[in-house]
Amino acid sequence: MNADHFFFIALSYGITAVAVLGMVAAIALDYRRLKKSLQAMGVTVAARDERTDLD
Amino acid sequence: MLRFANPSFVLRFAARAVPVFGALAALLIAVGLYLVFFVAPADYQQGETVRIMYIHVPAAWLGLFAYMVMASAALGTLVWRHPVADAAQKSAAPLGAMFTFVCLVTGSLWGKPMWGTYWVWDARLTSMLVLLLIYLALIALWNTIEEPQRAAKAAAVMTLVGLVNIPIIKFSVDWWNTLHQPASVFKTSGPAIYGSMLWPLLIMAFGATFLFLALHLMSIRNEILRRRLDRLTRLAASASDMPRAARFEPAQ
Fold it and tell me: CB 3.0–4.6 Å: which of B14, B34, B132, B201 could bond B217 by disulfide?
């Protein structure tokens, strides 16, 4: 494989991996933060999912 | 239909579907990457650089698919004024922006060794850049307007206006003389790619689609929880204000 081509291929896959894993991490951390905030307000996980009055 | 549009149902569905979609995405992408690097041949003209196409093309499809999801949700917002439609619309924008960004960057990195330049103001490239700008504008709009219902309505209108860009992207390679190649998979005469290259591409595309579905559901779940948390915070704030307000005597 041409070294130049290898550089462009590696960079493409690297940037894609960072973008995708970054998005997964951001969404997962946001979920964790929201769960903690709801628990801090005294809302249990089961009650949280059924509180339609809050929608 | 209303059962499926219920936020509590969406939360229950997300709890079950996210692990399934996530596992399918991981499996398909793993198999796809194996095929891309160990089975698919190098292109007779592009050489090894063709391997960038296996992420560039699915990213482009998902960038467009996310916008179609947003447009459908925008209709749900404007016609039925449904909170789940708002959440679906808002959650798809960052994902669509990410896939469009990946498409533009990988296309640019493919363009340098193949075309001799990272960028040309070609109709296909420019219309994809416009799509990314629309996504960023929609994200900014959601963050600018504080009241969720007003933000949802404004974003829905803007999403439907921006929909005009989708056929421009799709047909740009037919309507104008572009450096970007014309369609080679979705053609009336059938795909113009050999099976040894087409299958890895399709497997990567299905993997990316399941990844989008898993992330979109996770994101919708976050949005529903964020609204519930916001509502609880407001209820708690108004409850703590009540005794103080009751202490004020009306002026005589």
Answer: B14
Q: Please, which residues 79-108 of chain B have a Cβ atom closer than 8 Å to chain A? A: 83, 94-95, 98, 101-102, 105-106
Return d(Cα B171, Cα B167) in angstroms, integer: 6
ipTM higher than the 0.85 cut = yes
Best of A23, A32, A35 to disrupt the B interface (most B CBs within 10 Å) is A23
Angle at B85 between CA B81 and CA B90, to 5 degrees: 120
User: What pTM, to 2 d.p., does this model score?
Assistant: 0.89
Tell me the C-alpha distance between B236 and B243, whole Å.
Answer: 12
Contact predicate B33/B180, CB 8 Å: no
Mutate to test the interface with A, among B222, B230, B235 (most CBs of A within 10 A): B222
The answer to whether residue B125 scores a pLDDT higher than 60 is yes
